[in-house]
Amino acid sequence: MKTSHLLLVGFLAASPAFALQPVDPKLTARAEVLFFEPLKFTDVRDRAMGDSSNTTYLDQIRDHLLEQAKYYVPAGHKLSVTITDIDMAGEFEPWHGPRWDDVRIVKDIYPPRINLSFRLTDAEGKVVKEGKRDLRDLAFMMKITMSFRDDSVRYEKALLDDWLSSDFVRVRKK
Description:
alpha+beta
């Protein structure tokens, strides 16, 4: 029985249909996003007494960054981003009472903040660009952003978009 499995595996491996093909750089992921100790992040909660493990905010931020990377990362390159802290725009104000526990009050005194480190590598794995950034937008309430109006993480997405456009050259139109 074991011999027949080995023969089958050997046959399939030798078959041209199953031969390893070179990976097309256009098909590989252009970015990866990691969250370093997200339970220690300053604020990614969706309730006053909640925690970051019960929210989808981190998934939304990661998905947005992965989507936007295709416009700033050339084919064959890879952008690795490690987010080390997030303080979302707005704050929960407990003095409003228990019915306001899940209402984030957004005021200009509560700006969004994201700390991250990044590394851009080329197809051979050589580092093209790397660094750390402490992203802040003290004027976030003054910007007119129509693209994320009903999005609960719109200010954080706009902050990441500003970072990408300032640190990287756009390689593709939307």
